[in-house]
Design brief:
67% helix, mainly alpha, single chain, Globin-like, globular, 141 residues
Length: 141
Amino acid sequence: MSMTGFDSFDTAVQKAGIWLKELMMELNADSKRQAYMALRAVLHTLRDRLTVDEAADLGAQLPLLLRGVYYEEWDPSKTPVKHRHLDDFLNHIRQNYRGSSDVRPDFIAKAVFRVLRRRVTEGEIKDVKSMMPKELLELWE
Protein backbone atom coordinates (compact mmCIF):
# COMPACT_ATOMS: atom_id res chain seq x y z
CA MET A 1 0.00 0.00 0.00
CA SER A 2 1.23 3.46 -0.88
CA MET A 3 2.05 5.89 1.93
CA THR A 4 1.53 9.08 -0.03
CA GLY A 5 -0.28 7.96 -3.14
CA PHE A 6 2.61 9.18 -5.26
CA ASP A 7 5.26 6.62 -6.21
CA SER A 8 8.16 9.07 -6.35
CA PHE A 9 7.44 10.31 -2.84
CA ASP A 10 7.00 6.79 -1.50
CA THR A 11 10.36 5.81 -2.99
CA ALA A 12 11.99 8.90 -1.48
CA VAL A 13 10.62 8.05 1.97
CA GLN A 14 11.77 4.46 1.61
CA LYS A 15 15.33 5.44 0.59
CA ALA A 16 15.65 7.95 3.43
CA GLY A 17 14.42 5.28 5.82
CA ILE A 18 17.11 2.87 4.64
CA TRP A 19 19.81 5.46 5.34
CA LEU A 20 18.36 6.23 8.78
CA LYS A 21 18.10 2.55 9.72
CA GLU A 22 21.71 2.04 8.66
CA LEU A 23 22.79 5.02 10.74
CA MET A 24 20.75 3.78 13.71
CA MET A 25 22.80 0.60 13.62
CA GLU A 26 26.06 2.56 13.41
CA LEU A 27 25.06 4.72 16.36
CA ASN A 28 23.40 1.94 18.32
CA ALA A 29 20.49 4.41 18.51
CA ASP A 30 17.02 3.66 19.82
CA SER A 31 15.14 5.74 17.29
CA LYS A 32 15.17 7.09 13.78
CA ARG A 33 14.83 10.53 15.34
CA GLN A 34 18.27 10.20 16.98
CA ALA A 35 19.74 9.02 13.69
CA TYR A 36 18.06 11.87 11.82
CA MET A 37 19.41 14.51 14.22
CA ALA A 38 22.92 13.08 13.97
CA LEU A 39 22.77 12.87 10.18
CA ARG A 40 21.45 16.41 9.90
CA ALA A 41 24.11 17.87 12.22
CA VAL A 42 27.00 16.15 10.45
CA LEU A 43 25.71 16.82 6.93
CA HIS A 44 25.25 20.52 7.70
CA THR A 45 28.71 20.78 9.22
CA LEU A 46 30.31 18.94 6.31
CA ARG A 47 28.33 20.93 3.72
CA ASP A 48 29.44 24.20 5.29
CA ARG A 49 33.08 23.07 5.15
CA LEU A 50 32.95 22.40 1.39
CA THR A 51 33.07 24.79 -1.54
CA VAL A 52 29.70 25.51 -3.13
CA ASP A 53 30.49 23.28 -6.12
CA GLU A 54 31.65 20.37 -3.99
CA ALA A 55 28.68 20.75 -1.63
CA ALA A 56 26.37 20.53 -4.65
CA ASP A 57 28.21 17.47 -5.97
CA LEU A 58 27.78 15.68 -2.66
CA GLY A 59 24.15 16.78 -2.36
CA ALA A 60 23.38 15.33 -5.77
CA GLN A 61 24.20 11.85 -4.46
CA LEU A 62 21.87 11.99 -1.46
CA PRO A 63 18.36 10.54 -1.58
CA LEU A 64 15.68 13.13 -2.36
CA LEU A 65 14.40 13.68 1.19
CA LEU A 66 17.88 13.73 2.69
CA ARG A 67 18.94 16.19 0.00
CA GLY A 68 16.27 18.53 1.32
CA VAL A 69 17.61 18.12 4.86
CA TYR A 70 21.13 18.73 3.57
CA TYR A 71 20.21 22.02 1.90
CA GLU A 72 17.95 23.22 4.73
CA GLU A 73 19.11 26.61 6.09
CA TRP A 74 22.13 26.70 3.76
CA ASP A 75 23.60 30.08 2.91
CA PRO A 76 26.21 29.43 0.20
CA SER A 77 27.53 32.99 0.57
CA LYS A 78 28.88 32.02 4.02
CA THR A 79 30.75 28.94 2.87
CA PRO A 80 33.17 27.37 2.98
CA VAL A 81 33.77 27.69 6.70
CA LYS A 82 37.41 26.98 7.35
CA HIS A 83 37.50 24.46 10.17
CA ARG A 84 41.23 24.01 10.35
CA HIS A 85 41.18 22.04 13.57
CA LEU A 86 39.28 18.97 14.62
CA ASP A 87 37.84 20.72 17.69
CA ASP A 88 36.33 23.47 15.51
CA PHE A 89 34.64 20.91 13.26
CA LEU A 90 33.32 18.91 16.22
CA ASN A 91 32.03 22.06 17.95
CA HIS A 92 30.13 22.93 14.78
CA ILE A 93 28.52 19.49 14.86
CA ARG A 94 27.63 19.98 18.53
CA GLN A 95 26.00 23.34 17.70
CA ASN A 96 24.01 21.80 14.82
CA TYR A 97 22.86 18.80 16.85
CA ARG A 98 19.36 19.28 18.23
CA GLY A 99 19.30 16.33 20.56
CA SER A 100 20.61 15.52 24.01
CA SER A 101 23.52 17.53 25.31
CA ASP A 102 25.61 14.43 26.02
CA VAL A 103 26.24 13.85 22.31
CA ARG A 104 29.76 12.86 21.28
CA PRO A 105 30.26 14.71 18.00
CA ASP A 106 33.26 12.58 17.03
CA PHE A 107 31.18 9.42 17.46
CA ILE A 108 28.29 10.66 15.33
CA ALA A 109 30.64 12.11 12.68
CA LYS A 110 32.41 8.78 12.29
CA ALA A 111 29.08 6.95 12.08
CA VAL A 112 27.69 9.30 9.43
CA PHE A 113 30.93 9.16 7.45
CA ARG A 114 30.79 5.33 7.46
CA VAL A 115 27.27 5.48 5.99
CA LEU A 116 28.38 8.07 3.42
CA ARG A 117 31.31 5.86 2.38
CA ARG A 118 28.89 3.00 1.71
CA ARG A 119 26.20 5.07 -0.01
CA VAL A 120 28.11 7.72 -1.99
CA THR A 121 30.48 6.99 -4.85
CA GLU A 122 34.13 6.45 -4.01
CA GLY A 123 35.12 9.31 -6.31
CA GLU A 124 32.86 11.76 -4.51
CA ILE A 125 34.13 10.69 -1.10
CA LYS A 126 37.69 11.18 -2.38
CA ASP A 127 36.76 14.70 -3.58
CA VAL A 128 35.18 15.59 -0.23
CA LYS A 129 38.12 14.26 1.76
CA SER A 130 40.58 16.17 -0.45
CA MET A 131 39.00 19.42 0.77
CA MET A 132 39.55 18.62 4.43
CA PRO A 133 42.61 19.38 6.53
CA LYS A 134 44.60 16.32 7.54
CA GLU A 135 43.44 16.63 11.12
CA LEU A 136 39.79 16.11 10.09
CA LEU A 137 40.54 13.02 8.02
CA GLU A 138 40.78 10.90 11.18
CA LEU A 139 36.98 11.12 11.38
CA TRP A 140 36.77 9.16 8.13
CA GLU A 141 38.81 6.32 9.74
